[in-house]
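Input record (one chain):
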Amino acid sequence: MKLTDKKAIFFDLDGTLIDSVPDLALAVNEMLATLGKKTFDESVIRYWVGNGAQTLVKRALLGKRDVDNETVETTLFEKALNIFLQAYKSHLCNATRPYPHVPETIKELSQRGYRLAIITNKPEPFIVPILEGLGLKHYFEAWLGGDSLPKKKPDPQPLLHMCETFNITVEDAVMVGDSKNDILAANVCGMASVGVTYGYNYGEDIAVHHPTVVIERFEALLNIL
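The corresponding structure, as predicted from the sequence alone:
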């Protein structure tokens, strides 16, 4: 399937463009150790990533992924979140790397004239340092983090806001992401979407959320756009 006549491409960050789990895991375990709590293997923390810093911290404190109906004492949570954010800030790009073929594909899409933006649930202050550290910032015209607006993905507000910023319609854009949050946000506002099969979707098949197209390799974007 071809996604023709698009003017802009919106990308998720973690799990779509970059594998940031190694550095996130370091920060999570530094937080837990500081609090005198049990630390976890990177392979465990990998399944907690993808819904923003606050959810990641809550999962780490409770030691499990499913925390929707769980609560954490407010003072402990706020202390833990602050420790985590400071720890992560100290090593944003120590081991974080783009997924295969991301840099050259982003470059080619930019050269083709697409307007590129980042829409992630990661806190906004971390976006630019990571993009700069990986040499990708100059390809992107704008970015939104999970704390940039009152609502974040899977709410469509960030996607709609970016369309307003670019002065385009939802029909002019496509959302590319690895998790259901990306696809659900796009579906709600009627935007085309591309689901990638790698990343942080907790083992769930991205196709069950009905993206417009599913790809296994990032560079396949060049063939469908």
